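Supplementary notes for students who missed Thursday's class. We covered one full example, reproduced here. Read the sequence, then the structure, then the short commentary at the end.
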Amino acid sequence: MAEENVEAKLKNLLKQEKIQLWNPPYTRDNNEPGQQHMGKLAEHYAPLVGFSVSEIGAALESIRAQAVKRGKGNKTYRETSVATLELLMPRDGNKDAKKKNYLETRLDVPVQEIMDRIAECYGLKYIKLILNGKTLSTDQRLDQQGVKNNSKMMVLRVSEEDRKRQITEEEKKKSQNESIQRTKKGFQILSERDGSEDPETTSFLEIADQKGNPLKIPHKEKKALILAMGFHETGRSLMKRKQYDNALCHLLQADDQFGCCGSALLTMVDNYAVLQLDIVWCYRALEALSCLDDGKIRLQKAEDCFQHCYGEQQQRLLMIKGNCGREEALFLRLYLLQSLLCYIDGNDAQARLKLQKVESLYARLSLDSGKMAQLMALGFSEKEARLGLRACHGDLQEAAMHITNRRQERKEMKEREEKKRSSRMEGIAALTEIGFSRRDASSALHQAQGDVDKAYAILMESAQDAMLTNNNTEDAISPQLVEQLVYLGFERAVSETALRLTGGDVQSATQLLLDNQGFLSPDLLPVSPSSSSSSPEEPSTSSSSSSSASSSSTKSTDTDTELVNEVLEDISRHEEDYLDITLEEETELIDTMKTYLSRGFTHSA
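Structure (token representation):
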């Protein structure tokens, strides 16, 4: 980081004094440095920047060499349309971390072609290309996705696939995005259920406010939000395992899904702000300093979102939760990342101001190990103890009471959810017992907001509509026969159904209606096409097609269940898991920042 800090300061000075290092006398005709003039410049800037002459000299030469290369690249691009791209390679895939990696290419080529070249050149497999925080699509050209001459692209290793060397090329390409696609499919299944199909699993994706109360959200936005939150949870799970490459891929997918949500919705929940923090935290872990500008934008979005969501001085959060101690961990990470980016940008003064805020929060958030031990001895988990002490600013008795109250709140909320699910399951069972498919019953019950009678009416109306539709494709019942039954006092639609069921026999149809008091229950109605397709248990008119459909549906259901269970593994069962930051990585970065800033301060002094 120190090199970037020095170069940023020197670039500002060079700009102020209108010095162009790529021109004489600093660069000769053969593009070699003008040693004498470069040396004088280093002696001039060393006391101003606060570093030794040799360090300043090396930084100036780095800036000059980059400028010369950029100039040559610009000339080449003008003459041949061949662009120069800078690649930020994975740390473990690059022997010399300070070495710049470049790739020359036309911009009207598919991204996949460039990925293949990079993979072959650097011995990498299963990579993604990131430009300005967006994943480039493999099936589109570079120029179609904003790639320009001198663009900086981040190369991400998606997963460890060396052990799969024997797979075919087709399977290899297909598996590059397998993790992300499986995650997306799993959460799409859950989002489509919308709380009606499987009450046992949808509670994990209940969208709630800071207090845990469910929010009423339009279906389209709710679906996008569930996908965004699902990708975010998976990304956070990967971050905990230090798999930052793969984590960033999932987090950027979450960011795309959040883009489908209305701006008003994003201010209701803090998920969007936390996501921006997590993305920049991954940039830091991957040492993706070329993402500096994108990181600044994301941190500003996070700060704005927190302000809307929590209030200017967290007053809204205090009103809702009664405290803001746990959320302070998010602000610590925000200010720490802002301090880091300010330092890399050469703004030491602003970096120190942000770091002072960080250290103030750090002092409040650091916990007494003895108090942690006492709370855990009372039967509380480490997570509960940490969150409780932070919420109560280290007060042991208040923390114990707070954790107990939170447990009671969660218990009551869980009981309400279980009661709601139990009622829903009973309603589904009642409707399936009288002949409706489980999926249709679930959907109708959801539309009726849990009212079984209303759901029954919805299903009957749907069944009658299906029968009327079928009438257009089957042999018509004689209008005279229908009129005879109507004359007897039966409803026209029910009369038509009765005649169809009895093959047009008026006497049998009349007896059927009399036996059922003029009303036909669902179990007497033929299975509608929608019900048949959605329920593998329903009989079909063809035994062979029934067997095939049942087998296909069962296989699909098993696959869906597998995907859902897979993605649910990454969802924390504790609603405040995202606030449970141990501060281990933060501590390391704080110490690093203090070392760099104290060094610069000492030289400046």
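Commentary. The first helix runs from residue 2 to 16. The beta strands are 83-88, 101-105, 127-131, 134-135, 152-157. If anything here is unclear, bring it to office hours.
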